[in-house]
Amino acid sequence: MRRIGLAVVLALSLALPPLDAEAQAARVPRIGYLGNGGPPPVPSELWFNRGLRELGCIEGQTIAIEYRWAEGNIDRLPALAAELVQAKVDVIVAAGPRAISAARESTPTIPVVFVYLADPVAAGFVSSLAHPGGNLTGTASEFETLITKQLQLLKEAIPRLSRIGILRHRDGSLAIRGAAETAARGLALTSRTLTVAEVGQFEGAFRKAKNEHFEALLVLPGPYFDVQRRRLIDLAAKYRLPASYEFKDYVEDGGLLSYGPNINEMWRRTASYVDRILKGARPADLPVERASKFELVINLKTAKMLGLTIPQSILVRADEIIQ
Fold this sequence. Notes:
The protein is of the alpha/beta class. It has helices at residues 2-15, 21-24, 47-54, 77-86, 97-106, 147-157, 174-186, 202-211, 223-227, 229-238, 248-252, 263-278, 300-305, 312-315; strands at 30-35, 64-69, 91-95, 112-116, 136-140, 163-169, 190-196, 216-219, 243-245, 257-261, 289-290, 294-299, 320-322. It contains 14 helices and 13 strands. It has a 7-stranded mixed β-sheet, sandwiched between helices. The longest helix has 16 residues, at 263-278.
């Protein structure tokens, strides 16, 4: 009987196909990264990647990352999101309304972790901050609530300010636009919103602002502007228009002033969502986290070039001053 049993086991083992080598190895989780701009010189130095490493997720070892870059052409985002779905990634990371929408529309099941600067509930991305529902969650700054503070700081930096242009991208949040216009009225500022769709329209908007004697510009947040920020900064210098921006990157590159969330910290926190999802958490059960760190950054070199003297009352509150 023993010999018969061994013979049966041997026969069955020979009849079964060998396991695929890839199936035998532990599967490495795959993350899809949907970028609005172009690839940085060292992708591993993205703050998102740094956050992953802090959690023990090492690219090329414990995780794999599929990068897709729109190179500033946001019309490419739907096709790039579809590529990530076809690549069978386990989670997609996206920032900005167009990228988030593209990811959501490409899949109803793959988790999507976002970085969003407006209210994700009002945008329809999640049901509520506490209970997102669906397959999306992430971090948000709800910039609508920051606009008044941003304008107050700009007015304090330029005490004579009475006329301001509000620059927005075509795909920017309508809620943020409305909040900016309301805040301007509340501060007794005459404002006009200038909407652009592509970089070729930037100079026309700056020229119009100058010709209509606006004394400063408020540049509303948006991934497209972030990709093209050096062009915006150059035009502000050319037309001698003081401008306020969302992130300190603009000020480091020559912009006058920024007030907004610490975007690097938001990306770092995004990594924790990805880590939890890869460990089995459902996006619907992970509350959206609001930005908690905000920073005021001022470039005194740019102020001097524009002939401005920034009052000491605002300088003492700056988180960083660039000389």
